Amino acid sequence: MGFRRIQTYTLPSEGGASLRASGWVDEGAAGGGQWEHTDGRPRRTDQPTGVKNRWALTFPRPAIDVIPVPALDSAPTLWEVAP
User: Where is 5: in which H helix or E strand?
Assistant: First the structure.
């Protein structure tokens, strides 16, 4: 889909072994605290509001940015048989 970097969050009580084993990098503590929706509603209280650990995974840039397409004159049409 074109993403170069993705991230996820875990609670400090979670070790993150599976993330680390699959190449994710622990970027340390992030976020936490209360905030309000733009319409003034309070944040949900059934989810943890404390500081979390942010993990990131960066994908390597592809070797080529454009996939080469064969010239139209060398590609068979629907009615031709490829050599």
Answer: strand 5-10
Beta-bridge mates of residue 36: 42
The domain total for the chain is 1
C-alpha span between 54 and 9 (Å, rounded):
5
Between CA 23 and CA 33, with CA 27 as vertex, the angle to 5 degrees is 130
Helix (H) / strand (E) element for 53: namely strand 52-58
Indicate the pTM of the whole model: 0.62
Q: For residue 15, is it within any domain?
A: yes
Identify the domain containing residue 13 by its residue range: 5-60
Per-residue pLDDT for the chain (83 aa), expressed as one digit of tens each?
577 899 999 999 999 999 999 999 999 999 877 666 778 777 777 878 889 999 999 988 776 666 666 666 666 666 666 55
